[in-house]
Specification:
By secondary structure, the chain is mainly α. It has a domain of about 60 residues: lambda repressor-like DNA-binding domains (434 Repressor (Amino-terminal Domain)), CATH 1.10.260.40. About 45% of the residues lie in helices and about 0% in strands. It is built from 6 helices and no strands. The longest helix is centred in the first third of the chain and has 11 residues. The protein is elongated, with a radius of gyration of 25 Å. It starts with 19 loop residues before the first helix and ends in a 13-residue tail after the last helix.
Length: about 130
């Protein structure tokens, strides 16, 4: 009688500065199946430091930020309005579309709802 065992493919990805002790442990466990890949691509940049991000961030208005947070939390405008103290859906829409400015008091309420700093919802740019 003969038995065969198939083991599933194992893929482990570690990023950053990986200690030699961990590398050696993985090499001892997986032998020749263990490979180390390095990403020394000079084109790699930190996203938040890129010119593209800075341009997009500079063009974003507080209403854009509000809409992104609302959608990421899967809230409708009406649901967010209720959370903010029975504010009509249209008022939330007007804030998102830049028709109605977001006051400091409203920014504080939004900060509480989304657990972020209030300044995310205030236009700090100087004219």
């Amino acid at each position: 009688m003969q038995a065969a065992v198939r083991t599933p493919h194992t893929e482990i990805r570690l990023r950053g500065d990986i200690p030699d002790k961990v590398i050696n442990l993985l090499r001892a466990e997986y032998g020749q199946d263990f490979h180390v890949e390095t990403d020394d691509d000079p084109e790699t940049v930190e996203a938040f430091e890129s010119d593209w991000y800075k341009t997009v961030k500079a063009a974003m208005m507080p209403g854009d930020t509000l809409k992104i947070y609302r959608e990421n939390h899967k809230l409708t405008q009406a649901a967010l309005g209720k959370m903010l103290g029975e504010i009509p859906r249209q008022q939330v829409s007007n804030m998102e579309n830049g028709i109605r400015p977001i006051s400091l008091a409203m920014a504080k309420k939004l900060a509480t709802v989304f657990s972020v700093p209030a300044d995310r919802f205030i236009d700090l740019r100087t004219e």
